Amino acid sequence: MTFKILPGLATIADHYDAFILDLWGVVHNGHAPYAGAQDCMARLKDNGRQILLLSNAPRTSDHVIEFLKGMGVDRSEYDHILTSGDMTRQVLETGDHAFLADTGKNFYQIGPARDIGLDDGLGYTSVTAPEDADFLICTGLVDDEVETPESYKSILETSLLHKLPMFCANPDLTVMRGPMTVYCAGSVAALYEEMGGQVDLFGKPYAAAYHQSMAKLGITDSRKILAVGDSMRTDIKGANAANMDCVLVGGGIHAEDWGLEPGQTPTVDQIEAVSAEYGFKPTYVVAHMTW
User: For the whole model, what pTM was predicted?
Assistant: First the structure.
């Protein structure tokens, strides 16, 4: 065992200059902040630590800021924010991507109407049928409480027939919304790739997300940053690749598989098993992000 199970972040906070925090599963559950999360953030800020929220939300950060305000998380509670939606928009804005070379500006979006802002003011056109598109943007499932990736098989087959590449603005496969687990854009992208489609994904665990985070923080030494997340596949994998220490929050996306009650910490055996499954380990483990 090379990881440590902790009751909270108090004993390790002084070891780092900045903290990269996941949102869903760490700060909130999709409906409300987790108990103790905002207190932990306040104590980090009181101790002069920077906080950057790094989210695989398929919306630009201005929309996520408003969403957080709506659940009582004020903009003053963190220093920086970066979303996978921001990173997707950056590519659309610059046009610097193989998928956009020598092609038109019509796209077909797979996802709900709430996933907005990615193409605002950039001269792209959203079309209503994939056969009229030059590329796809996947932000999620329209009704993620009912639909599955297979619900989009027909649309993906048509897209594949027309050789449409896909930008995926959220690599997550699933996420917790209150007590429910719902599918995310990454699950649709995975199916399209399995079918033979071309896909590029933005956000965690990919290196660009961590490079941009470090630039926002103004820190060049990754060892001075602690990343906190609830997903082995995205948060812990990305932090490991970026050479950052990381905290796995057990009460997030893996809690159901482990049969955990709220506030319960996973066992050493459970962490060892999931680490063996993925091939890497967290530095620390907590039940929830508390002080």
Answer: 0.95
